[in-house]
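Running this now, will post back.
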Amino acid sequence: MKKLLFLLIIVAAGIRLNAQQDHQYTQFMYNKLLYNPAYAGARGTPTLTGIFRSQWLGFDGAPQSGLLSFNSPFLTPRVGIGATLSYLKIGLQRDFHASVAYSYDLVAMENVSLRVGIQGSLRTLGVAFDDAAPFTIGDPSLDNQRVNDFYGNVGAGIYGIFMERYFAGFSVPRIYSNAIGLNSALNPVSAKEYRHFYGVAGGIFPLSEDINLMPAVLIKYVSNAPVDADLNVNLDIRQKVTAGISYRLGGNGPGESVDLLVFWQATPQVGVGASYDFTLSDLKDYNGGSIELLLQADLKKNKKKNVFSPRFFL
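Update: finished.
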């Protein structure tokens, strides 16, 4: 019970300080399945995506996260399936997440697709006491063990593609507000898993025969926290190299960060990406920014010959 109480105090403190409970990625435009189950199968081909993120370089105990996701049409182009494995490490906190998604295209017209999706997820929250420095004062409630707890949930979303150049979606990845432990039957809940609401939108605007402007926005909202957003503008050059800049709201100053992004389509089916975040908040003097590395692979050639820019859009 003492171990569980200590776990709840740490988790609750983390929630109070960070407001957002979900994982955060700068390259969200290549990673929509994490936020929206309706995205499963939207690319029209089996796709594998991997991302590693190291936040606030040089800051002791700073967040590190990673994910591996897969999504694909299933039996028919109107049906999509997907799965995601991800982890988040902050100090001694360990967060592992697994989900499976199903989507169905309600419209499936030549120039319009409107998918709805559902997902089931399993999440484990824990504290790695065995990674902490040895205690010099004996305390039987804090020994070299890991404490974990498991939580199941369900989510839903909607995702649309219009004129093969514009997309928009809305989702709630975890609908049920789990109580993250109780101190006792007489005490209040120490922490709570709040619903996160996500809205995403973007498009492709040709500037010339070889250059396309590709803006995108990810809006995030959770109860008791300000609305957050990532605002991005990318330039696609010959559908080979994509480079751009993002601005993330939040923080306690002019924003959370300004981010540089680059993506290289190494082969028709394999692309690699990277991003670097310049911290704008008060933590800017105590860290060297944040980095992300991305790998995306289409396991089969995309059959949609008329898709304008499939690697970004779908």
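The domain at 2-313 is CATH 2.40.160.40 (Porin). More later if anyone needs it.
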